[in-house]
Each structure stands twice: as structure tokens, then as C-alpha cells.
Amino acid sequence: MAHIFLDDMPTIPATQELAQSPLYQLVDKNQDINTRAQIVYDRARAVSRAYALTAEDVVYLRPKFWALHTDPIAPLDGAAMTLITIQYNLAAGTLAPFAFKRPELRPLLQQIMNFDVSAQYLLSEVGHGLDSPHLETTATLLADGSFDLHTPSPRAAKWMPPTGPYGNMPRVATVMARLMVNGEDRGVRPFVVALGNGKEMCKGVSAKVLPTRAGANPVDHAITYFNHVHLPKEALLGSLEKPHDLRQNFLDVIWRVGVGSLALSNLTIAALRASVYVAGKYSIRRTVTGTDGKPMPIIAFRTQQIPILHTLAQTFVLDAYGKDAAQRFVQPDLDPRVRHGIAATLKAVMVQHCQSDLYSLAERCGAQGLFEHNQIIQSQLEMRGVAIAEGDVLALCIRLASELLIGRYEMPEPADPNSLLAKHEAGLFEEARTVVMGLGAGHRSEAFNRLVLPLCQPLIEAIGHRMAYDAAVKAKVPQNLIDLYVANALKHDASWYVEHAKIGRRKIAEIEDKALSALLPQLDALLEATGAAPYCHAPIVSDNTWKAFVDSLPHFGGVAQINLIPGTEQGVTEASGSARL
């Protein structure tokens, strides 16, 4: 079974040795923030240099670019992957097309590609997230052709990108600002800006570093301000001319955000691989006392098998879906709106499965699932960031569903229109279109807000379930895994299948039970097929790793005496000897 999947694992480059190096060992949480943040930057640089991406890899979305975002090393430090994807997809991806035509930009681009500098991407503002087209940061053209970059109000401060004096390397950024020429707003443009030298900020640039995100290794996420920073004319990426369509100009300028929606979504695959491996191995190892008085592994319970086997099925199906989506995304003749739809749909489904699966896996590990060192809950919290970065999932679904419902374009057709998931997709479309037609008002009306917006995310998820199924069939994922994936999709909207497909609740349960029973004998092979073993640092996966972990913990002893009950003493009986520690 294992070889079926391992042939499809990314083979360029190998990060297995890096994952087992001292740099990637468990970090002492008692270390100061600066030390821990430096480890994150060192890891980001090491992974980046292992891949040695070229600017062409990034711009033309070559296989190595996608492989980076599915590498099994990603869950070991989500903060490092945050730095990496900003560095390459957003910063380098925006700069490179201009550098190809402008020789003076090429040295900076090469520094970014080498990770000799830390490169950031400043788009969102404190007051402008989902409505970032209305950002307020200005870059005013001066008489000599240079620019004055300024944050005009607290709402206009740039939000979230790591910009503090950390990492011991120069910090640069692609900053999105409103180009002002003779008092005229000429739309948003990217500007190349130096932020600091790694020890202090540049003149006119300041950053207020935010507290560490829950569950994440520390990165200097910050609120960034520009106080009349003077930029040379060469800092502008693009034209001074006013575009004919300001909205389209904005979408063109931030085109790498759409790429990021797809690339970041693929990080969920690595998180699922690692987490299900940990939960599966722990469930095989962990025992309870059975009715016969003998040890019984907890994996024997169906309630333990369900989340683990479902996650395995989703992992391999989503892996096929991610590859299929990437192939569709890079087609040069694809309608850009459909390209956006492919990324949004993939993200909706990846995030839906990942958030649900990681919660269930952590829960089935009991108290062990609460600790970051066992990897699952840390991945769960990191993936919540993925759900927001490069486009909030709900916002993406609302935009896509609204445009599909009013007929602006269509998503790729089902490979099998008669499949259950294709029928479900068509049924939800018909239901939503009926509601829209009955409104008699535009898609920005209050009625549309009340009655249609709540339908958008389930609709896009239905498209994604069908596309994932089609991709898995095309990739020849083993049928038992596909069957269990379908069973999960049926459970997700059981009422529709009961009402429209005449599949009752017990029938859905029987479909699931049959698929689970078929996969259970292959559990060990499936866990190994994830490829996660060399990247697993969780102590709970084996007796040896657990013993080594316990031996490394701070150990306290003593001879203190406290008599809790008057007239009695508590001590150590001579016959007991020493406890085996």
C-alpha cells in the first residue's frame, strides 16, 4: 500500500536530514523571545536554501515552488513557513517580473532568493483588511521624481507582517501604497522599501511588535508605520499613469495573493500527514485494560478509528486535489476569474477538513493532545492562520458564490455528473439560484445579505468536495480511501441526501462502516505511507521516544515533611525502595 503514495511525494529537495538536525529539535519554551525568534529565522533560511528556488520557479509556478508548500518539514515550524511563503510567493513573486526588465532591481531580487535579507509584503492595514482596495498609505510623487511614503492615520498602519529588528539580517518589503500625483489618486502600486538592518529600523520606519500568536513559535508580527519616508524613483514597481480601471489595477497588483491562497492551502496536507501519523501511532501504542483484564490498544475502539481513518482518507484525496488544482491554476488560457475560483474552492475545502480533523485527532489523544510538543494542537492553531492569510475563507466563498450565482462565469464541470457529490453540488446551486431569482433585487441588497450569504460557504465547499473526488478518481487513489472520503461528505450535509437522494441516515452510516472496515487492516501501511515518520518529533508515538522525553524533563525531589492529619506522619516505607524513574 505504501508505495502507491510515496511515489507521489515531493522528491526535490530532501529536507529529511534537516528535520533531524539540531536546528529542528524541540525548542525550550523557557528561552527568551529573541532567542526563539532567531531559531525561527534560522529554520526559514535553512529550508529556503535547501530548495534554492530561482526567480523563474516562483514567477512561473514551477513544480519546485509547489513542492515547497507541501514539504513534510512545514508542520515542524509553521512560523518558519510563514516567513518562507511571504519571502518567495509575495515579496519575490511581486518583484521578479519587474526585475526581469529592470537590471537595477536584480541584485535585490537575488538577495531575496538567497534569503540574505528577510523580505516582507505590506498590504493589509489596521483599518483595511477585507477592504484593502481602500487602503490609506500614500506614496506621493515629488518634483524630482522621488516619493514620500507616509502613514496618514493609525488606521493606515500596516498590519501583521513581521517587520521588527529581528533575524540578524536586513529587512526589506514590498509595500502597497496609494500613488498620489499632483493630488490625484492613481491607484495602488507596490514600492520597494528598506525597513531595517536586523538590529534597528530605518529612519522614518517604526514597528510595534505584537504579542506572539497562540500556539505559534514567535515571529515579530507587527503594526508598521511610515513617517514621510523618502523613496528614490526606482522604488516604484509599475507605471505613474492612472489605470483605466482602478479595481482591476488593484487585482493585478496583488496577483500573488491569489497564488498564495492556493499555495498556503497546500500546507494543510503536510499538517494532516504529520498529525494523523502521531494520533495513529499513539492509538496503536496506548492501551486500556479490557474486560478480560488484558491490555487492549485504544485503536480497537471504533470511536478511535473513525477520526484517524477519515483523516487518512482526506489526506490522500486532498493531496490529489491539490496537485490537480495547481495544474489547472497554471493553465495560461484560463479565465483569471476561474483561476481565482479554483484557489478559493481548494482553500475552503482544505481548511474545512483540516480544522475539523486536527480538532478530532487532538481530542482522541486525551491530555497528550493539549501539548504543543505532540505537534497536533500546534498545527491546529497554525492552520487557523492559514484560513485567514491570503484571503479569509468565508470572504472568498461569498465573493465566488455570488459571482457564480449571477452567472459571471462557471467553475470546471464535473468529470462524472452522476456521482453523488456532483448531484449534491448541482442541488445546492439550484436551491441558491431559486432564492436569488426570488429576491428581485441586486446582489448587494439587504435581502441578498440575509438569505444568500449564509448559503455561500456550503455551496463552495460542495464544489470542492466534488472536485476533490474527481481529482482522486483521476489520480487513481485507492477506492477504499475515496469511498471513505465520500462517506464523510455525505455526513457533512446528511439532510440534503436524505431529502433529495433518498439516502437515509442508516444508509450513510452503513456506507461509512463498510469503508472503515475495509481500511482498518491497512492502518499501519497507510500511516507509513504519509511519509511523516522522519519528520515526527512527538514523544507519544513510541515507548522509546516517550522515555527519552520523560528523562529530559526537569525533575524535582526532596525531604520535606508535612503532617496533614494531627498525630500522624507521612514518610517512605523501608520496603518500598526507590521508585523507578
From TrEMBL:
One Pfam entry name: ACOX_C_alpha1
Annotated Acyl-CoA oxidase C-alpha1 domain residues: 268-404
Superkingdom: Eukaryota
InterPro entries: ACOX_C_alpha1, Acyl-CoA_Oxase/DH_mid-dom_sf, Acyl-CoA_oxidase, AcylCo_DH-like_C, AcylCoA_DH/oxidase_NM_dom_sf
Cellular component GO terms, alphabetical: peroxisome
GO molecular function list: acyl-CoA oxidase activity; FAD binding; fatty acid binding
GO biological process: fatty acid beta-oxidation using acyl-CoA oxidase; lipid homeostasis
Identification of the protein by name: Acyl-CoA oxidase
Organism: Cristinia sonorae
The organism's taxonomic lineage, starting at the top: Eukaryota, Fungi, Dikarya, Basidiomycota, Agaricomycotina
